[in-house]
């Protein structure tokens, strides 16, 4: 495939699915600016390695893969550095703890390991088929099914434990 054709298909894919890519990045970082940075960094990485595209039909899943990996890399870097501003410290030190427990799906998802979280997000939040997920995370479809099953089971356990507290 010609480089010009691939570039045009890539730009069209980005324009057609920009909200999906942003939503995927946001589901990892929960922050608008960071999600936009991830999408931007993903586009940069994609443009650098665009000649690796073999088929025009795989551009979307290829870019999903880049967004997922860039998001995971971002989270790994963020684990090492946690900055808190003075206002947050003051608020937390004088604040009163809530007396109720709020069951939040996103908080429960954050407790899962990244391999389970990725499969669940791609399947239920991005509404991708299992075959597409397997291609994005470069795993066998049976591995994807197992991770989805185990991830949902762990999610149910986390939520039911929160209900008991």
TrEMBL record:
<feature type="domain" description="RNA polymerase sigma factor 70 region 4 type 2">
    <location>
        <begin position="104"/>
        <end position="155"/>
    </location>
</feature>
<keyword id="KW-0805">Transcription regulation</keyword>
<dbReference type="GO" id="GO:0016987">
    <property type="term" value="F:sigma factor activity"/>
</dbReference>
<dbReference type="InterPro" id="IPR039425">
    <property type="entry name" value="RNA_pol_sigma-70-like"/>
</dbReference>
<dbReference type="InterPro" id="IPR013249">
    <property type="entry name" value="RNA_pol_sigma70_r4_t2"/>
</dbReference>
<dbReference type="InterPro" id="IPR000838">
    <property type="entry name" value="RNA_pol_sigma70_ECF_CS"/>
</dbReference>
<protein>
    <recommendedName>
        <fullName>RNA polymerase sigma factor</fullName>
    </recommendedName>
</protein>
<keyword id="KW-0731">Sigma factor</keyword>
<dbReference type="GO" id="GO:0006352">
    <property type="term" value="P:DNA-templated transcription initiation"/>
</dbReference>
<dbReference type="InterPro" id="IPR007627">
    <property type="entry name" value="RNA_pol_sigma70_r2"/>
</dbReference>
<dbReference type="InterPro" id="IPR013325">
    <property type="entry name" value="RNA_pol_sigma_r2"/>
</dbReference>
<dbReference type="InterPro" id="IPR036388">
    <property type="entry name" value="WH-like_DNA-bd_sf"/>
</dbReference>
<dbReference type="InterPro" id="IPR013324">
    <property type="entry name" value="RNA_pol_sigma_r3/r4-like"/>
</dbReference>
<keyword id="KW-0238">DNA-binding</keyword>
<comment type="similarity">
    <text>Belongs to the sigma-70 factor family. ECF subfamily.</text>
</comment>
<feature type="domain" description="RNA polymerase sigma-70 region 2">
    <location>
        <begin position="14"/>
        <end position="80"/>
    </location>
</feature>
<dbReference type="GO" id="GO:0003677">
    <property type="term" value="F:DNA binding"/>
</dbReference>
<dbReference type="Pfam" id="PF04542">
    <property type="entry name" value="Sigma70_r2"/>
</dbReference>
<dbReference type="Pfam" id="PF08281">
    <property type="entry name" value="Sigma70_r4_2"/>
</dbReference>
<keyword id="KW-0804">Transcription</keyword>
<dbReference type="GO" id="GO:0006950">
    <property type="term" value="P:response to stress"/>
</dbReference>
<dbReference type="InterPro" id="IPR014284">
    <property type="entry name" value="RNA_pol_sigma-70_dom"/>
</dbReference>
């Amino acid at each position: 495939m010609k480089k010009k054709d691939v570039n045009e298909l890539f730009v069209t894919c980005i324009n057609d699915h920009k909200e999906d890519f942003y939503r995927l990045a946001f589901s990892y970082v929960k922050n608008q600016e960071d999600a936009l940075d991830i999408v931007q960094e993903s586009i940069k990485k994609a443009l650098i390695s665009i000649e690796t595209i073999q088929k025009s039909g795989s551009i979307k899943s290829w870019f999903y893969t880049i967004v997922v990996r860039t998001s995971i890399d971002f989270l790994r870097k963020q684990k090492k550095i946690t900055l808190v501003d003075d206002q947050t410290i003051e608020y937390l030190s004088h604040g009163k703890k809530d007396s109720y427990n709020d069951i939040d799906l996103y908080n429960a998802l954050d407790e899962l390991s990244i391999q389970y979280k990725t499969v669940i997000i791609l399947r239920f939040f991005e509404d991708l088929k299992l075959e597409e997920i397997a291609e994005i995370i470069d795993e066998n479809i049976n591995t994807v099914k197992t991770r989805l099953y185990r991830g949902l089971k762990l999610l149910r356990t986390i939520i039911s434990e929160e209900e008991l507290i």
